[in-house]
Amino acid sequence: MTDVATGATETGPRQRPRVEGGREGEILDATVEVVAELGYDRLTMDAVATAAKASKATLYRRWSTKAELVVDAISRAKGCPVPDDVDTGSLRGDLISLSCEDGGFTSEMPMSVIAGLLTALHRDADLQRAFRERFLAPRIDVVNRIYARAVRRGEIAADVDIELLSTTLPAVIIHHAFILGIEPTDELILRVIDNVILPAARGSQAR
What we know:
Elements: H1 23-38, H2 45-52, H3 56-62, H4 66-76, H5 91-100, H6 108-121, H7 125-153, H8 162-178, H9 186-201
Helix pairs in contact: 1-2, 1-4, 1-6, 2-3, 4-7, 5-7, 5-9, 8-9
């Protein structure tokens, strides 16, 4: 049964129609570029429509708010791919591969997107939740698998807080990038891995 006023059915809300052909991908790509350039706060549907050469009506038929559009865009962006699960045989090798290749901390697009969202994430609960569930979750899953294998290989001591350890590398790199203004480089990533992550992974064995 359908509610005439809302378009909803007994099984849930009406699904918004997808944009035909390759236009949806073009709109999402344009959205990512606008986020990276202007930031979330200054992004408007008008700006995205202009960048994508689409009508604003087309955008609103598919996405009811800019939060929906932005989260959809960054979750599927070509420049922000979910990293492949890497297994080089060592924690060091896995972290280097994850952090220094396409989609890692040295890639311009993922870091630009994060920069564009930072000011809004701490005060927009809906954006924060969607960002965590759709953008961060699959990436955290890859990181968790890397650390789980390191535990099985015996590279991480039993007394180490793995949950804290697994977030340390991105925390340090993001602090350098957005607080200190230091561009992430392979050299910086290696310094953090070799001087912070690996010694901490050895726990009390290293002390």
